[in-house]
Specification:
The chain is of the alpha+beta class and 199 residues long. Helices cover 35% and strands 31% of the residues. The protein has 4 helices and 8 strands; from the N terminus they run E-E-H-E-E-E-E-E-E-H-H-H. The longest helix is centred in the C-terminal third of the chain and has 42 residues, at 141-182. The chain starts with 11 loop residues before the first strand and ends with a helix.
Length: 199
């Protein structure tokens, strides 16, 4: 995923602030946010509340996100609206260079800023179902018909290719056999054969 972090300054939290613990940050996340991310979510309307539960050697942020996102349906590819509500805890500490081992994120102390944009997005994505599909019968009819037509055409082409390939192989084999039977023996091989017989 690629983020234009320089544009999304409001998501940066100053970890060196002396008044961080207990502070709450509210974000209204819309289409502009998702447009800056090269990900699955196309559009959305999410409200995220981030609260700093602890500030010290380890920072703990509680991130609550609720709203809806628009993604392509896995079956018909048309827009699918998903309801999202997730509460997650992000642990962060300062260090020499950025690292994310899954349990705790390390932020370079020389920078001192945590960019929440990526983590809010990832928590939203993790809350989505593995298969994003409309309920049975709710898929876009025109898209399903086009998909069915495409699959039928492709299946026919593959069957035709297999038959052509088999026919071509048989033809090649036949032609090869015919050439072997009528092609005269190279005079050089005949000379070598006579030399071998004399030995």
């Amino acid at each position: 995923m690629h983020f234009e972090l320089s544009i999304m300054e409001t998501f940066k939290i100053d970890l060196l602030s002396s008044q961080l613990e207990g502070k709450t940050f509210d974000y209204e996340i819309g289409d502009d946010f998702f447009a800056k991310i090269d990900g699955l979510i196309q559009r959305g309307n999410i409200h995220s509340t981030v609260k700093c539960l602890n500030a010290g050697a380890i920072f703990k942020f509680q991130i609550h996100s609720v709203g809806t996102v628009i993604v392509p349906c896995d079956r018909c590819l048309s827009d699918l609206e998903l309801r999202i509500e997730t509460t997650d805890v992000l642990s962060v500490k300062l260090g020499d260079e950025f690292a994310d081992d899954g349990d705790c994120v390390v932020v370079p102390e020389s920078e001192g800023y945590l960019d929440l944009a990526q983590f809010i997005y990832e928590f939203i994505v993790l809350n989505m179902p593995i298969a994003c599909c409309h309920e049975p019968g709710k898929c876009d009819d025109s898209m399903m018909q086009e998909l069915s037509r495409h699959q039928s055409t492709r299946s026919g082409e593959e069957d035709g290719e297999d038959e052509d390939s088999a026919s071509s192989d048989d033809s090649d084999a036949s032609e090869s056999g015919g050439e072997d039977s009528v092609e005269p023996v190279d005079s050089r091989w005949e000379a070598l054969k006579q030399l071998k017989n004399k030995q």
